[in-house]
Design a protein that fits this description.
heterodimer; A: alpha/beta; Rossmann fold; 3 domains; 6-stranded mixed sheet; 5-stranded parallel sheet; 11 strands; globular; B: alpha+beta; 60s Ribosomal Protein L30, Chain: A; Phosphoribosyl-aminoimidazole Synthetase, Chain A, domain 2; 2 domains; 7-stranded mixed sheet; 5-stranded mixed sheet; 8 helices; 14 strands; about 30% helix; disordered N terminus
């Protein structure tokens, strides 16, 4: 398949692996920010191809994993309301709230539907004028523009039976927070390619300069990830700290400007809690006052739900790179994909789920 | 301690059925193993074949049943009627049986269009006729409007097993070759694209087909089939894991040998699905002695449903729990594990 096969080519993988071995003279801790990259690394066994001195830290870039429990509880509270069609991306359905997940509410009769785009949810709203359709808008700057477009169109159409439960988050503030954390171990980043396809990478220039840390915007295929690692290690070895773009076939410095403009129009930047990481300043997006009418939190009066995270789940430590998933005592014991304690075990992009699925036998 | 509030959200022990219990993954296995199997337990059921093998007055009969629920009812490459006949014929064929008779039980939703029902019935008759089996008994129930799915079909089937044939996971041996007859994941993707109204430029057709003719051809060619399994719900990976667990062997699969149509691969990439876990309805894996590999491949390729037959892996050694590993193009070996339930589309 064009644009995929060449980035999974075993020969190129071998060459890059050899090149990484050649340039690496000491140990380095490198974080891949995005959960899609984590999934690829574990699925293709990329970490097994690297020198032992390269330690990959799996970052907080899985939207399912970082959506706080309070928002799952809000979603559950809205989804059980009469005459509500609750629409979500598929992998949010299995994330446990305080007492249920969306899958079990669906089994009890709640009208919960998997959609591929918020625009599909809007279509449902037009088809069912007697129902109220809510879309659960989660994810990073990658999914935020389509939610923004839905809000924009809903306003234009004056669509009254549609609203959005928004928990979108931004990548640069969480990278900043990780770097500011006293226990930080990250020495280089593989930046999240798809987020940058929307936002560009100019946001990362001050971050890299301020913290003297290489940030290599990287794609998701094995060749991309190894190439990103190569560029990152090369910078570290040469004591350079720059933003580089490995994913230039998709990412441009200024990103997708119309998408950014739409996001600015629809969203305010707000402080947001992250599952496992706590509140991070300016890390979230919320509807502006102009779009208040389409804010499901207001419409269903769930703003006061504020749930604490369970103590046993150490996803926060996993997301900060302080432990590997298998080092958590609950991993594979009380916490499995069938019965996840925390969201990192739910999504296929979550580090714990990826380790469980592809590496479980190593711990049997 | 009265004010102690436990807010740990899990473990969620489901106290009602969720969709994932029917997804062919770990939750379904748990449901079978904890709720159903222990209560019905008997030596025939406990063999966990696709069909029960019954010894009656010196004859060996294969007996199986399956229920069919699919949305949409009509899809590219088939419909629920064809599926209901072929699926049951395939379950019989996988035990080495020659299918003879099947039943047809319909559960129809009030309001369902008679012309659609006619189409489904015609399709069933056509599939049965092509396979040389008769639909000899049936039942019809109508349920109140509101189930949203239109019609459910249950079929049961019986077939006869030739005296010498013994196909079972217990016969899988170290050294066996693992062969499949066609490319993977077409049925699941074809149905999904239609159900979700996703418009792709190419039309991916379900592989829904009756495999009993092909299996009979292999038997007549003298292939010593150790085991067979059709790769339905849960796809290639789940079926292999079940067989590895049942036979307590380690299977090693070569990723580069797996035939997947480019359009199917593209759809999987876009939707974030792994084609190895997507359902097939005309594809099966068979385990044969290594020495018969070429002969088997040649025999399968003679049949229209076996044009793309290929060797996908080997049975390595005995393994206490059973294990399936995938040898990737990059030279890494990784384990294939059962999913919890159905694959859920990823966010991004």
């Amino acid at each position: 398949m064009k644009y995929l096969d060449e980035y999974r080519d075993p020969e190129t993988v071998k060459k890059l692996t050899a090149a990484i071995k050649t340039i690496t003279t000491q140990s380095w801790n490198i974080m891949e920010v995005c959960g899609g990259q984590t999934h690829s690394i574990i699925k293709y066994g990329i970490d097994q191809l690297l020198p032992d001195t390269i330690n990959l830290i799996h970052g907080p870039g899985c939207p399912v994993c970082v959506t706080p429990l309070a928002y799952i509880d809000k979603a559950l509270a809205i989804a059980v309301q009469p005459k509500v069609i609750f629409c979500s991306f598929g992998d949010m359905l299995r994330v446990p709230g305080s007492h249920h997940d969306l899958l079990s509410l669906k089994a009890q009769g709640a009208d919960i539907r998997i959609v591929y785009s918020p625009l599909d949810a809007m279509k449902l709203a037009r088809q069912h004028p007697d129902k109220h359709v809510v879309f659960f808008g989660v994810g990073f700057e990658t999914t935020a523009p389509t939610t923004a477009l839905a809000a924009h169109q809903a306003k234009q159409l004056d669509l009254n039976n549609f609203s959005l439960l928004i928990c979108h988050v931004r990548v640069p503030p969480v990278m900043q927070a990780l770097l500011n954390s006293p226990g930080n171990q990250v020495q280089g980043f593989l930046g999240a390619g798809h987020v940058c396809s929307i936002m560009g990478y100019h946001e990362y220039l001050p971050l890299s300069a301020q913290h003297k840390i290489p940030i290599v915007i990287t794609g998701f295929e094995p060749v991309d990830i190894l190439h990103g690692l190569y560029l990152c290690i090369k910078q570290l070895e040469e004591k350079r700290y720059q933003v580089e773009n490995e994913y230039s076939r998709v990412v441009k410095e200024q990103g997708n400007q119309p998408a950014q403009q739409l996001m600015r129009q629809v969203f305010d930047v707000v402080d947001r809690s992250w599952r496992g990481l706590g509140e991070i300043a300016a890390s979230g997006l919320a509807l502006t006052d102009e779009y208040e009418q389409w804010n499901a939190e207001q419409r269903f009066a769930v703003t006061t739900i504020n749930t604490q995270e369970p103590a046993a789940c150490r996803s926060g430590d996993v997301l900060q790179g302080l432990i590997k998933p298998a080092q958590c005592p609950e991993f594979g014991n009380s916490c499995t994909p069938e019965h996840p304690l925390g969201a990192t075990m739910v999504s296929s992009e979550g580090a714990c789920a990826a380790y469980y699925r592809y590496r479980r036998y190593q711990h049997d | 301690m009265t004010d102690l509030e436990l807010n740990c959200p899990l473990p969620l022990q489901y106290d009602q059925i969720v969709m994932a219990h029917g997804g062919g993954g770990r939750l379904m296995q748990q449901l079978l193993d904890s709720i159903i199997q222990p209560v019905f337990s008997n030596p025939i059921l406990n063999q966990k074949h696709d069909s029960a093998v019954l010894n009656i007055n010196g004859s060996r009969l294969a007996f199986t049943t399956d229920s069919y629920v699919v949305k949409p009812l009509f899809f590219s490459g088939g419909d629920i009627g064809k599926l209901a006949v072929c699926g049951t014929l395939n379950d019989l064929a996988m035990s080495g049986a020659l299918p003879l008779y099947i039943s047809c039980a319909l559960i129809i939703e009030e309001g369902f269009a008679i012309k659609d029902l006619q189409r489904i019935i015609q399709s069933m008759q056509q599939a049965a006729q092509q396979a040389g089996v008769l639909i000899v008994t049936g039942d019809t129930k109508v349920v109140e409007h509101g189930s949203r799915d239109g019609v459910y079909i249950n079929t049961a089937g019986i077939g006869i097993i030739d005296g010498n044939i013994n196909v079972s996971p217990a016969n899988i041996q170290a050294g066996d070759s693992i062969i499949i007859n066609s490319d993977l994941a077409r049925h699941g993707i074809a149905v999904m694209l239609e159900r979700e109204g996703l418009n792709f430029e190419s039309s991916i057709k379900s592989d829904c087909a009756n495999l009993s003719g092909l299996v009979q051809l292999l038997i007549q060619a003298g292939i010593d089939i150790h085991c067979m399994r059709d790769l339905t719900r849960g796809g290639l990976a789940s079926c292999l894991i079940e067989l590895a667990t049942a036979s307590r062997h380690h299977f090693e699969i070569d990723e580069t040998a797996l035939p997947i149509h480019q359009d199917v691969n593209s759809a999987c990439e876009i939707l974030g699905f792994d084609p190895l876990y997507i359902a097939n309805e005309g594809c099966f894996a068979l385990f044969v002695p290594e020495a018969q590999t070429e002969q088997t491949l040649a025999a399968i390729r003679e049949h229209p449903l076996g044009q793309q037959a290929c060797l996908i892996g080997k049975v390595k050694t005995a393994h206490p729990k059973g294990l399936v590993t995938l040898q990737t193009a990059m030279g890494i070996s990784r384990v294939l594990d059962l999913l919890s339930g159905e694959q859920l589309p990823r966010i991004c």
